[in-house]
Amino acid sequence: MCASGPTWRDSLSKRIILDNGAYEIKYSAASELKPQKIYNAVGKDKKTRAVYAGNKLFEELENGHSNMQITYPIIRGLLHDSDLETVIWKQIFSKFKKMEERASCLALTLPPVLPDIVQNRLAEIVFEDFEFDGLFMSSTHSMIREAAMIEHPVNLGGGAPSQQCEYVVDSGFSYTYGVPFFNGRPLKYAATRIDVGGKLLTNLLNEIISYKEINLQGETHLVNDIKEQLCYVSTSFNEQLEICKQMLNPIAKEYVLPDYKNNKRGQIRDPVVFQQLPPDQEQINTNTNQRAPQLQAIKISNERFSVPEVLFTPQDIGINEAGLPEMIQQSVNKCPKVMERQLYQNIIVSGGNAMFTGFRDRLYQDMQSLKPDGSEVQIYELQNPITSAWKGLRQFCQNKNNFEEYVVTRKEYQEEGFRVLKKFYL
Fold first, then answer.
1. Of 63, 13, 327, which is closest to residue 195 (Cα–Cα)?
2. Where in the chain is the domain with CATH 3.90.640.10?
3. For each successive 10 residues of the chain (426 residues), what is the average pLDDT?
4. Which of 84, 157, 271, 419 is the most exposed place for a label (fewest CB within 10 A)?
5. Which CATH architecture has domain 198-306?
6. CA 28/CA 119 separation, integer angstroms
7. Torsion of CA 99, 20, 35, 145, to 10 degrees
8. Which residues are registered as beta bridge partners of 140?
9. How many C-beta atoms lie closer than 10 Å to residue 134's C-beta?
10. What start and end residues bound the annotated signal peptide (predicted)?
């Protein structure tokens, strides 16, 4: 049955964007200004066996529902359970009013190096399960680069239009991946990955807190909030360790656990200031003028910077991999020598871990000792590292004159099969 009305070829509202992250998916039509987000996970209550998916699961976790077995469709950056991912995608597509899949094109971000079996399964879901008319696939890194070109049009490039080189780092939930680019094309043979991402950092913080303070093994969502509110990257690691040994430690903070009645999110307080408060100020609820119950608090000290430190020195916790600066160096060394200087000058950082305070400064500091003689290091941050790939994908869908050239149509897929996918994957 043919679709009536406008199609993706002439309507931006028919180009559906999915930045398919392992932790959350950012999605919209290409005509929209901001993305919506959905938690990319499915949870099952261990007692009632009730199943929650996407943002419904996220709401349950926000309300303190911790007795949950959570499963992510994407594990270590690759699609692991396509059936669960289909459940999440159905929720997303239901948000688009009057969307006709057979008149629409799905624009999708994927890891830069993707096994054929995963790429083929995704094509099956898109063309056979949902019956989209078109599929555009791009690496997350290619779209991060697009976003960087929007935000830093004057600075990035640095060479002749035919000799532009950039190096894109995406440090997200599952991994940290670096990809060099030449003239807008990813050099996948030089892509380098370390298996340190936000999930590992959250799990590490959880283990430390559960050992030193209180058992939070079933509270990953809560620990992730502690990480996001309190952790940062240090540019003087050893010096800050010494500060943490002081009696009055200015680095230490307390995370007051939510009671899920008055507070659904934990609050940060300074333990030194709090201990000096008179009892009346400490315990009186100003709204009700009644004595408030004492809430449990977790003290976080050197963990604030020692946990994100693993991004730079994973050997500290027994991971036999290079840190982020060395990963970039190894990747650049795989490229032609003539590209070296520009790659160091055009480093773009994105992903959730780039949100850590001090991330850029520490990377810049460490790269100084690794750069070749005569080279300069420039590191470009993006306005929102979480949505940068979505932003680049939206830009590509809107403004590229040759967008259609990169789209695999359902007809081409039916006629040529999986082999048609490779020549279109950016």
1. 327
2. 198-306
3. 73 94 96 96 92 93 84 93 95 84 92 91 95 94 95 69 85 97 94 96 96 87 95 97 92 90 85 55 45 74 97 96 97 95 96 97 96 93 97 90 86 90 73
4. 419
5. Alpha-Beta Complex (3.90)
6. 22
7. -120
8. none
9. 27
10. none
Note whether 389 and 144 are within 8 A (CB): yes
pLDDT of residue 291: 42
What are the DSSP calls for 350-403, one per residue?
Answer: ESGGGGSTTHHHHHHHHHHTTSPTT----EEE-S-TTTHHHHHHHHHHHH-TTG
Of 163, 188, 162, 165, the closest CA to residue 177 belongs to 188
C-alpha–C-alpha distance, residues 91 and 204, integer Å: 32
Cβ–Cβ < 8 Å for 197, 172: yes
User: In the prediction, which pLDDT does 283 show?
Assistant: 47
CATH assignment of 142-196+317-381, among 3.40.30.10, 3.10.50.40, 3.30.420.40, 3.30.70.1170: 3.30.420.40
Place of tokens 């009632």: 48
Domain(s) labelled CATH 3.30.420.40 in the chain stretch across 142-196+317-381
Residues with Cβ < 8 Å from 324, sequence gap 6 or more? 169, 171, 176, 194, 311, 312, 363, 366
Residue located via tokens 């300074």: 270
Alpha-carbon span 128 to 118, nearest angstrom: 15
The answer to whether the CB of 277 falls within 8 A of the CB of 284 is no
